[in-house]
Amino acid sequence: MADTSSSNAYWKANIRMIQISLVIWFVVSFGFGILLRPMLSGIKFGGTDLSFWFAQQGSILVFLVLIFVYAWRMNKLDREYGVEE
Fold first, then answer.
1. Predicted local confidence at residue 30, as pLDDT
2. Cα torsion through 72, 77, 80, 81, rounded to 10
3. DSSP per residue, 21-45
4. N- to C-terminal Cα separation, the chain
5. Helix (H, G, I), strand (E, B) or coil at 85
6. Residues 34/55, Cβ–Cβ less than 8 Å
7. Which domain holds residue 69?
8. How many domains does the chain have?
9. In the prediction, which pLDDT does 66 show?
10. Interhelix angle 4-26/59-81, nearest 10 degrees
11. Alpha-carbon distance 1 to 4, whole Å?
12. Whole-number Å distance between alpha carbons of 4 and 14
């Protein structure tokens, strides 16, 4: 990654992945667990309301999935720009 345009493109792609991950996590944790609680309260999942499940379990599980997807995508991005470990 010798030139500046390649470096800028790499960081732009990295920041874009971070932004998408944060939006997904926000929607799942704050949106489904708090804002959409009244709409999801009648839906049963795992013996409890879906909104409660998202607030207690779902956001954590989504966060873990996002970590693995981010690591996988960053490894792919690193290979594309020649900065792999």
1. 87
2. -140
3. HHHHHHIIIIIIIIITHHHHTTSEE
4. 13
5. coil
6. yes
7. 4-81
8. 1
9. 96
10. 170
11. 8
12. 15
